[in-house]
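Field reference: sequence -> structure
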Amino acid sequence: MTAEERARMNELCIQIQNEKSYSKFEELMREVTALMSAKESRFPESKFAPAGTGQKVLHATAIRTMKGINSYDDEVIEIHVAGAEPLYSELRVENSFTDEHGNTLALQIPAPIDLKLQAPSDYLALRSSPQTTS
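Structure field:
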């Protein structure tokens, strides 16, 4: 957690311990949950979307490196996305990654990768489950 998030979490926990109003308690709990969700989403192995978003993880493979379209462009990696329609299964992006310390890294090919797509919940709707018949 950032220093600000940690300080806010401490404040919220103290307020929650002393809160007598249920509606205020609920509001404080929602804020604690949002802080915890934000922290959880920073872990690469997290399967949950940060609060206020929805996400999907696509499995892919980086299969080769190449020069960009222009000679001065950085190295590009070609990625094949598993399960995508054939016409849309190939992506090409700059071979530049950042680790948790801010260091710039390049992917070594071939490499399995996960693509995480995230969208604000304002643009998502709850999908109903298909009805089963007996």
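Note: Residues 3-41 form one domain.
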